Amino acid sequence: MNSLISGFCVAFSMYSFIPMPQLTWDKKTMRYALCFLPFVGVLIGACQYLWFLFCTHFEANTLFYAIGATLLPVLISGGIHLDGLTDTSDALGSHSEPERRLEIMKDPHVGAFGVLGMVVFLMCETALFAQLYETPNYLFLALCGSTLARIVGGRAIVSLPCAKNTGLAYIFAENSEKERTKHAMLFELIAAFLALAVISRSIWVVISIAAVILWCIGHARLCQKRFGGITGDLAGFLISTTELLLLLIAVIGGLCA
């Protein structure tokens, strides 16, 4: 099977609910898998846009829209990135050494800080989607968040050293064509921001670019200082928080319009 097709299948089978052909995970099939991770974000953004059109057409309640918009990414992705946010919240809340933090993230049980982090995240996202429904001036920026977040999350996996030689991040990093994947995802990121700039033509696009760059730098420092490198959970944490960050910027932009 062609490397691009197999990469698409691996990405969607791992990071979405969509059934895909079962492939052996190796260097050949996973070579470009991370390049297709953002396309899961495109699917999520498209579904959220259709949900927005549905709710506005039938004049649905604000809370009804907000809860649906919050749940859609979880349903489509299977909650894999939310799991990363939960595990990372647990590990950060422990205030332990890097080795102990990695053990906490590996533990299948959820601790108090993990539950707290997940609840706060979902409540913030629901509140922001509710406000976005009322002031949708920068709806496109918010809906592109799922794509942009997966670009930076995937690129982090092939750019940062892995904290351990096991786990999903290590498997994807080791089986990826790292340099080509970095370049491809940089191209995807630039293309996405250019599309936003053309459509929105607003200072808020510039603000979102600056915010994403600063947060990625901060996340990279967090990974290396607190954990000794990147893991799958930390990539999920980056994806979830970047989505929330761009949603927040879109809402603030709408309020200031």
UniProtKB/TrEMBL annotation:
The keyword Transmembrane helix applies. The keyword Magnesium applies. It is a multi-pass membrane protein. It catalyses: alpha-ribazole 5'-phosphate + adenosylcob(III)inamide-GDP = adenosylcob(III)alamin 5'-phosphate + GMP + H(+); alpha-ribazole + adenosylcob(III)inamide-GDP = adenosylcob(III)alamin + GMP + H(+). It is found in: Cell membrane. The gene is cobS. Its cofactor is Mg(2+). Joins adenosylcobinamide-GDP and alpha-ribazole to generate adenosylcobalamin (Ado-cobalamin). Also synthesizes adenosylcobalamin 5'-phosphate from adenosylcobinamide-GDP and alpha-ribazole 5'-phosphate. One of its GO terms (molecular function) is adenosylcobinamide-GDP ribazoletransferase activity. Its EC number is 2.7.8.26. It comes from the Bacteria. This is Adenosylcobinamide-GDP ribazoletransferase. GO terms for biological process: cobalamin biosynthetic process. It is an enzyme of class 2 (transferase). It comes from Butyricicoccus pullicaecorum. InterPro entries: CobS. Keywords: Cell membrane, Cobalamin biosynthesis, Magnesium, Membrane, Transferase, Transmembrane, Transmembrane helix. The chain crosses the membrane at residues 32-51, 63-82, 110-132, 186-215, 235-256. Belongs to the CobS family. Pathway: Cofactor biosynthesis; adenosylcobalamin biosynthesis; adenosylcobalamin from cob(II)yrinate a,c-diamide: step 7/7.
